[in-house]
Automatic annotation (TrEMBL):
TM regions (residue ranges): none
Residues forming coiled coils: none
Record protein name field: Rhamnogalacturonase A/B/Epimerase-like pectate lyase domain-containing protein
One Pfam family named in its UniProt record: Pect-lyase_RHGA_epim
InterPro entries registered for this protein in UniProt: Pectin_lyas_fold, Pectin_lyase_fold/virulence, RHGA/B-epi-like_pectate_lyase
Span of domain Rhamnogalacturonase A/B/Epimerase-like pectate lyase: 39-98
Length: 420
């Protein structure tokens, strides 16, 4: 690898040369020296970033060139966007880095032309495939041909972490209109500072262990102003924010979703029926304008390790009347159902009930603190004979009907109720 030429202390000359190396990717004498600092500029490999030219091959060439040294591929900010008609694969140990360093709302919100480190995606297949020990950081991903009304186009995963590709980091991503944003099937995952409006599913944890860390997530239609009323209605009756199938010791913090059918869907991974259910913790969360804030199906949550929920808000006032529920337990087939422990979780907005335990559920649930308001039937409906519910110091007001409606004859108690 070549050394930088001598400039005899001329600071202006040094500045010019560094700009050529880092921003352009070649030396003023025309030689190709983009890798001097382990930084591989996509422009040095032929990317244009004019929003018209297909830059897929050029960006992939930069990623491949960085692979032998585990380098950083610099997606140079431009006044337009990098147009991609195909998918990209980030090789092991490589970072794809853009110019965004924090959460931001997509430029589409303001009706402006794209600028910065923006990728425009035209392929309907998987767009970005991660490999082990890779990093994706600081980019905006947008689908220019996604519809703004009615039923969305079913694009493939925007970001895919395949099985056995462990130790992946994804952070500082804005994605205004993906159909399905992120699928993870490997261990040691860090997902941080993601903002967008996934139309079908936000984040899916397939087979994930030790451990998935997900923090600072916001899924909100206001990130994409072009989404019309009919498209938002489709999302509200079909989409979900977080799909957890087989995750061990996951940690979710600061997660917000607005206008979805479901906030979190715990369900069985059908490819591994012996798995006892996911377990972990969710702290500081909010699901607004949802039909079902959290749903737990068969083997969705472990009956041994369980899931802890703390400091959350669920506002289940949208969707089908009669089905609007904060948390629904629909697990079947096991005598001892999922274990849920909740503290300082509140439910408000017009809904039928805050907790719905269906007939075949064997849930063990403890609720400490928090409050429930504006329910029209009851605060807790227990249709199960084997369900166990403990309310301790839970506040309720502006609700109609009993705090616990124990139709199934389950083991329920309401200690130190705070009813106003």
């Amino acid at each position: 690898m070549s050394r930088l030429p001598s400039v005899d202390g001329d600071e202006d000359a040094w500045g010019d040369i560094l700009n050529e190396y880092l921003l352009v990717g070649h030396h003023p004498d025309g030689t190709h020296k983009t890798a001097v600092f382990g930084i591989f500029n996509v422009h040095a490999f032929g990317a244009i970033g004019d929003g018209v030219t297909d830059d897929t091959s050029a960006i992939q060439a930069a990623l491949n060139a960085a692979a032998p040294v585990g380098g950083v591929v610099w997606l140079t900010p431009t006044a337009h966007a990098y147009r991609c008609h195909g998918g990209l694969t980030i090789p092991p140990h490589v970072t794809l880095k853009g110019g965004y360093s924090g959460m931001r709302r997509g430029l589409q919100l303001w009706g402006e032309a794209a600028r910065g480190s923006t990728l425009h995606v035209y392929t309907t297949d998987v767009f970005l495939t991660m490999s082990h020990n890779t990093i994706l950081d600081g980019v905006e991903i947008f689908y220019p041909e996604q519809v703004t009304q009615g039923t969305p186009t079913p694009y493939g995963w925007t970001i895919l972490v395949p099985s056995n590709q462990h130790g992946v980091t994804i952070r500082n991503i804005t994605c205004p209109n993906p159909y399905q944003l992120l699928s993870v099937n490997a261990d040691g995952i860090l997902i941080d500072s993601i903002q967008g409006y996934p139309l079908m599913v936000g984040i899916k944890l397939g087979r994930v262990a030790d451990v998935a860390r997900i923090t600072n997530i916001q899924f909100n239609p206001n990130v994409w102003a072009a989404a019309g009323a009919s498209l938002r209605t489709w999302v509200q009756t079909t989409g979900f924010c977080l799909d957890i199938e087989q995750a061990e010791e996951f940690m979710v913090q600061n997660f917000f979703g607005y206008g979805y059918l479901r906030g979190i869907w715990f369900r069985e991974n059908l490819s591994s029926t012996g798995f006892p259910g996911s377990y972990g913790s969710i702290n500081n969360f909010g699901f607004d304008s949802v039909q079902e804030g959290i749903i737990v199906e068969t083997r969705g949550v472990s009956n041994r390790q369980g899931v802890s929920l703390s400091n959350g808000r669920i506002i289940p006032f949208a969707g089908t009347v009669g089905a609007r529920t904060g948390i629904k337990l629909s697990d079947t087939g096991t005598p001892q159902g999922p274990a849920l422990s909740m503290s300082n979780v509140s439910f408000f907005g017009a809904h039928e009930r805050s907790i719905w335990i269906q007939a075949n559920s064997g849930v063990r649930m403890t609720i400490l603190g928090g409050q429930s308001t504006e329910y029209t039937n009851e605060m807790v409906l227990c249709e199960s004979a084997t369900g166990v519910v403990r309310l301790v110091g839970v506040r309720s007001f502006n609700g109609i009907g009993p705090r616990i409606n124990n139709l199934g004859g389950g083991n329920v108690s309401d200690t130190a109720p705070m009813a106003l």
